[in-house]
Amino acid sequence: MKRSDENISNYQRLKKKEIASRVSGAKVFSKLDAQHGYWQIPLDEQSQLLTTFSTPFGRYCFTRMPLGIKSAQEVFQKRISQHLDDIEGVATEIDDILIWGSDEQEHDARQVEVQCVRSIVFLSQLTKDGVKPDESKIKAIQDMPTSSSKKEIERLLGTVNYLEKCVPNLATITAPIRELLKKDIEFYWSHEQTKALDEIKEILTQQPVLKLFYPTIPVIVRCDASQNGLGAVLIQEEQPIAYASRSMTESETRYAQIEKELLSVLFALERFNA
């Protein structure tokens, strides 16, 4: 069982006497378990076919490495060793990870190196530098073709609105696209809609980063009103923390410009919970 770009040969596992000699002098230990460890390894299409099994409902195959395959232990041991064996005070035995240190401080530092990362996806991508849009969401938008129906536009806007905090003046940019959702408008995707979609893709290509919010640092709120949309940005130390925007109602579009600007201030304060 192998991936198409990888040959798996016999992989030597640690022996008990090797681990005993490596932990000499250690006083603090912890053990981690890779939950469903084998399932964390994807199979290429050729290997998936080799796991085919029959059921009363048809034939199925695994897309992840299952238990019971002869080479599974060696494959998993090689993968986990490639990730962790270069960390001092860490040993692996299939899906078990042993961490040790001469005292709590040394042990904890090694555990952080094993368990912690500098970037993680949680609603968005959290990094040491700030918050970025989830790359899978960015790719989904960049791969989107022009829409051919109102249902496809709704799906497009649903995905785009997920990234509202990362895109300035999103409501104004998407206005030509949202125009096609009106009941009295004949559906016709034109240059205006393509331009709006391309602008969103261009902004996301630049991978905007929002700084993390610090409650002890002074905050600046900047807001603006266009012909049919409201926009705002929350700022600390000249760096954006979050963007917000919305389209205006039909009656709001008839406000005087000074009233629209005041409306944008109200919108910003309500959105950022000031």
UniProtKB/TrEMBL annotation:
SUPFAM superfamilies associated with the record: DNA/RNA polymerases
Domain Reverse transcriptase/retrotransposon-derived protein RNase H-like, residue spans: 189-273
Reverse transcriptase domain ranges (all copies): 16-113
Record's keyword annotation contains Secreted: no
Name used for this protein in its record: Uncharacterized protein
Alphabetized UniProt keyword annotations: Multifunctional enzyme
Source organism (scientific name): Paramuricea clavata (Red gorgonian)
Pfam families associated with the record: RT_RNaseH_2, RVT_1
Coiled-coil annotated residue ranges, if any: none
GO molecular function: catalytic activity
InterPro entries in UniProt: DNA/RNA_pol_sf, Retrovirus_Pol_polyprotein, Rev_trsase/Diguanyl_cyclase, RT_dom, RT_RNaseH_2
